[in-house]
Amino acid sequence: MTETSDGQSDRFTDPLVRLWRYADRILVRCPKCAGCASVLPEPTTTARPGPSNPHRRLSCLGCGHTAGWTAPRHDNYWIVPELNGPDDPYFGLPLWLRAECCGGNVLWAYNAEHLALLESYLAARLRERGAYRGSMSLVERLPAWLKSAKHRTEALRTIRRLRTTLPAD
Ligand SMILES: [Zn+2]
Fold first, then answer.
1. Tens of pLDDT along 21-49?
2. Origin, by domain of life (predicted)?
3. For the range 134-139, what are the long-range contacts, defined as Cβ-Cβ under 8 Å and sequence gap of 24 or more?
4. Ligand 1 centroid to 64 CA: how many Å?
């Protein structure tokens, strides 16, 4: 990998991750204290790991608020929500990492790792597709306004501002 003078990598290769990769730690705005809270898979012994886990727990270290979420059932299946933003897909709370950007659009990320992926994608001069062509990756699904070169500077500035709001952990 080569570095440009501003320290950003020239080249970004799509790691072909899907959004669910980041969905097991979602930072949201706490409904009680407006601080940063987390939505995690419920740590029960019966729960499955990963995106199909039908139980989620909201917890706020700032005020101690907690809440549980269980997916609705249909016959023998859990109905897990479609992952999206700029609200969390389980409790419907505003994501912590979200900001208006580039003329009324909303830039959002589930957590620090997700934000870092967006940053490295936007900062790169050269964007390469990953080798595997399966279902669309997170990067391929990014909205056109965010992929647009004319929005690059403002989007990067927004990402860096959002990063300063991340809680230390
Ligand atoms: Zn709170």
1. 999 999 999 999 999 999 999 876 566 66
2. Bacteria
3. 134/16, 135/18, 137/14, 137/15, 137/16, 137/17, 137/18, 138/17, 138/18, 138/19, 138/21, 139/14, 139/15, 139/16
4. 6
- Distance from the alpha carbon of residue 63 to the mean position of ligand 1, in angstroms: 4
What is the mean pLDDT of the segment spanning 122-146?
83
Helices then strands, counting H and E runs in the chain, come out as 3, 10
In a domain, 97, yes or no: yes
In a domain, residue 121? The reply is: yes
The span from the CA of 41 to the CA of 166, in Å, is: 20
104: in domain: yes
User: How far does the centroid of ligand 1 lie from the alpha carbon of residue 91, in Å?
Assistant: 14
Ligand 1 centre from 79 Cα, in Å?
28
34 assigned to some structural domain: yes
CA–centroid distance, 85 to ligand 1, in Å, is 21
Specify the pLDDT at position 45: 57
